[in-house]
Structures are given as C-alpha cells and as structure tokens.
Amino acid sequence: MNAVGVFFGTGYEEMEALTVVDILRRAGIETLMISITEEREVTGSHGITVKMDQVLAETDFEELDMIVLPGGMPGTTNLEGCKPLMEQLDHFYESGKYISAICAAPSIFGHRGMLNGRRACSYPSKENALTGAEVTRNPVEMSEHITTSRGMGTAIEFALAILERFQGREAADRMAEQIVYTR
Fold first, then answer.
1. Is 44 within a domain?
2. Which residues contact 134 (CB under 8 A, 6 or more apart)?
3. pTM, whole model, 2 decimals?
4. Per DSSP, what are the bridge partners of residue 134?
5. Does residue 60 lie within any of the structural domains?
6. Do the beta carbons of residue 7 and residue 79 sit within 8 Å?
7. Domain total in the chain
8. Would you call 103 a catalytic residue per the annotation?
C-alpha cells in the first residue's frame, strides 16, 4: 500500500492541495493531510479552513512514499520555512523517493538544488526560482522522482500524474474518465 503526505502550511492554495487528496483517495491511495504547525486545522489563502489528519510531529516519514507540497501564498513560504519538513524533503530527494510540488512550491525544489538538469514547471512568476531546470510551460513535468506543476488550473492533471506514479497510466486515464476530465 502506498502512502502520500500532503503538507499544509497556513495560506496554502486550497484547490491544489485538496484536488490531490480527493483524486488519490478516490483511487484507494492512503493520502494524509498533514499540518506543518501544531494546529489540527489549517486555513488556506482564500479563507477555507480544513481539518487535518495529523500534525507534522505525528508523522512517520518512513511510512510515506511521497511528499506533496501545494502552492499558495504565504503557504509556500511557510512550507519552506519549516525546517523539519525541509530536512525530510532533502532526505526523500537524496533517497530517490517521490517529491511533488505545484504552483509556487516548485521554487522550493529550485532553491534546494533539486532541479539541476531536469525539466520543471511552476507558476509563471516563480519560474526564475527553478534554478538549474529546463523550464517548460507544460501543465505537469515528471522528471525521474520529481513532479512539478503550474497552478490551480493544472491541479487535476497534477493529481492524475501522481496517481500515474503509483498505479500507472491506465489507472490515471480511468480516473480522468470517471471525473469527466479530458487529458
């Protein structure tokens, strides 16, 4: 069984985070909503508060197969400022475990030198932070164990790409059909 951790900092982009949670749970993938604070509820950048499954201190990263970082402001800044999460992100990267980010959050990968020689995408105003990457305007880029995406408008494609990582292209295509989404 695969397990994915979606990390929520205050000011996260609601659609980017919750679309991933929804699609992966529909597919039967254990998907945990994890607060990077001590609070069990986190408020997004548009004032939507969501109850988390757990807080960072309760997270056993050895049980996770992927870290997902949603964008949004100041959510992305809050994620990047969370030292324990960044230490785990570095460990996942160095171990070749899956890491994924959307919108502004791929800038975190760029700042940490994780995109050198890879194709990557992000929210347009954050493209300059994708240090070392071949920046594209594609909705999603999958480069080895790293997945990046551009923003709220690409959230479904991002979630389907993550699903594809775990269950293959056919499963992602079936899910797209079930949710009436054209890939």
1. yes
2. 117, 118, 119, 120
3. 0.97
4. 119
5. yes
6. yes
7. 1
8. yes
Q: Looking at residue 128, which CATH number applies to its domain? A: 3.40.50.880
Q: What is the pLDDT of residues 30-87, one digit of tens each?
A: 999 999 999 999 999 999 999 999 999 999 999 999 999 999 999 999 999 999 999 9
Integer angstrom CA distances of residue 121 from 8, 90, 176:
21, 19, 22
Give me the catalytic one of 79, 103, 135, 156.
103
As given in the structure block, the two tokens for residue 167 are 């269950």
Residues 169-178 have pLDDT tens digits of 999 999 999 9
Q: Please check whether residue 183 lies inside any domain of the structure.
A: no
In a domain? residue 170: yes
